[in-house]
């Protein structure tokens, strides 16, 4: 069964037709990148996959079930996934679990267990302002991954970083994916990011956006975590 199937999805906001007849399938363990220019409807698409919004036409299936916030199948890192500046990094990373009903102590224990893997060990009690931009993005990703949901949606996760840090973070994410084999859908307008990270690149047309090409990029895939 596909992790994600988007079947004939259209989305309009009043007169504005953003998505039209969009088709996409993502298999378990696949790193899919959807690429399109700003304003093409990438975040709109993620709102449909996460169940925050509903398509005007077509349907979205996650592991065979209609997408819905309550289904608990999708972990969504929104485009502006800001950490709360007045809470510690550990508190911030435990928030998502707490929001889904996990007790505070258990939520912190589970988040804390990932700190070393995310290169954040020792920063549990720090505040977000004490972290570098790359570390803040890793903390936001940790907050999403710790939910242990079958599908990870990453909305331009490195878009706000300077180009050197962005490259560093792209290599880091490629290494993490190599080890964990998450099922990921990442949207970006950065072609280099797409080629570096993706198993499959899905190209959006200008509005109304639909997927006009699907490219497999096996050669871009590093052969092992040691490559990093
Ligand atoms: P992207 O993420 O690719 O930059 P978005 O999905 O954020 O693009 O937006 C696509 C288009 O849909 C834009 O023109 C945006 O203004 C419009 N849009 C997004 N959300 C809404 C909404 N809730 N109501 C009206 N228009 C919206
Ligand atoms: Mg967007």
TrEMBL record:
<dbReference type="InterPro" id="IPR003439">
    <property type="entry name" value="ABC_transporter-like_ATP-bd"/>
</dbReference>
<keyword id="KW-0067">ATP-binding</keyword>
<feature type="domain" description="ABC transporter">
    <location>
        <begin position="4"/>
        <end position="228"/>
    </location>
</feature>
<protein>
    <submittedName>
        <fullName>ABC transporter ATP-binding protein</fullName>
    </submittedName>
</protein>
<keyword id="KW-0813">Transport</keyword>
<dbReference type="InterPro" id="IPR017871">
    <property type="entry name" value="ABC_transporter-like_CS"/>
</dbReference>
<keyword id="KW-0547">Nucleotide-binding</keyword>
<dbReference type="GO" id="GO:0005524">
    <property type="term" value="F:ATP binding"/>
</dbReference>
<dbReference type="Pfam" id="PF00005">
    <property type="entry name" value="ABC_tran"/>
</dbReference>
<dbReference type="InterPro" id="IPR003593">
    <property type="entry name" value="AAA+_ATPase"/>
</dbReference>
<dbReference type="InterPro" id="IPR050166">
    <property type="entry name" value="ABC_transporter_ATP-bind"/>
</dbReference>
<dbReference type="InterPro" id="IPR027417">
    <property type="entry name" value="P-loop_NTPase"/>
</dbReference>
